Amino acid sequence: MLLSLINHCYIFAMITQIKTNSPLQNFSYLIEYQKGKFWCLDPYDAGQINGEIDKRGGQLEVIINSHEHWDHYQGNEQLLSRWQCELWAHPKALGIIPNVSRALKAAESIKMDENCSLEILDTPGHTFAHISLLIKEHEIPQSIFSGDTFFNAGVGNCRNGGDPKALFQTIKKYYETLPDQVLVYPGHDYLHNNLKFTLSLDKENESAKHLLQKPAKVMSMKDERNYNLFLRLQNESLKESLDLKSSSEEEIFIELRKRRDQW
Ligand SMILES: [Fe+2]
């Protein structure tokens, strides 16, 4: 069932965010990098993906799975059987996700056309077979597909094959350093609950209050820096709420992750 489709046009590539009927509120994505040529990230419902491609005309060339959890690859089989396309994933997902045709290397840059590339980031923490995908146009970062590593107003949990210390390092290294303009395309729609979690610990956070009232569809890293507690580890009111005034950023991150798990 098609619940909603949101298109975002860029100069060189069109990204389509597809909200699925998953009880886990998964997002799948289509990237039309040249007219009629599609890549699909994390297919949940193959019928939805096929419907969108058929509507626009074209063919699926590549499926990419951000990681090895079933809700991020359950559409693979049906799509592979129709399109005989490639399937790319993290090297550690081989043997877990069936039929992977290419193991993506860390820091690999895949050309989409003469202007646009997809950079592979090895981002452990939610699991240890997790990649994030950074689209660059003329070498300038524009959009990140964050799977279950990073969410709007939150980060992924570490309860199914992950580790919060590894996730902390990943967020520090790859996400904190992203430029403000980068748009975030996460693997799930957890915005509402995550904002409520933010406000439970940072009660006066105006950005979180505003976004709860008027939810946007796609947020930038600049937005995230205003209300995502996992990017605000030095915030004094947060430290006070956690009673961790003299703790390290890593300790605060791990405590936040623990509290979000129990929240
Ligand atoms: Fe996951």
Broad shape: globular
Name the strands of the widest sheet in spatial order: 1-2-3-4-5-6-7
Major β-sheet, in short?
7 strands, mixed
- Give the amount of beta strand, in percent: 25-35%
Classify the helix fraction into a percent range.
Answer: 25-40%
Q: What's the level 1 CATH class?
A: Alpha Beta
* Overall tally of domains: 1
Query: What is the tally of beta strands?
Result: 15
Q: Please state the average pLDDT score.
A: 94
Number of helical segments with 4 or more residues: 8
Indicate the low-confidence ranges by residue numbers.
none
- Which kinds of small molecule does this entry bind, naming each only once? fe (ii) ion
Q: What is the CATH homology-level superfamily? A: Ribonuclease Z/Hydroxyacylglutathione hydrolase-like
- Terminal CA distance: 31 Å
CATH topology title: Metallo-beta-lactamase, Chain A
The helix-and-strand class reads: alpha/beta
Q: Return Rg in Å.
A: 18 Å
CATH architecture: 4-Layer Sandwich
**Run of helices and strands:** EEEEHEHEEEEEEEEHEHHEHHH
List its salient traits:
15 strands; binds fe (ii) ion; Metallo-beta-lactamase, Chain A; alpha/beta; seven-stranded mixed β-sheet; 27% strand; 263 residues
Architecture overview:
The chain has 8 helices and 15 strands. It is an alpha/beta fold. It has one domain (4-262): Ribonuclease Z/Hydroxyacylglutathione hydrolase-like (Metallo-beta-lactamase, Chain A, 4-Layer Sandwich), CATH 3.60.15.10. β12 (150-151) and β13 (154-155) form a beta hairpin. α3 packs across α8 (249-262) and α4 runs antiparallel to α5. The mean pLDDT is 94. The chain binds fe (ii) ion. The site of fe (ii) ion has 4 residues, from loops.
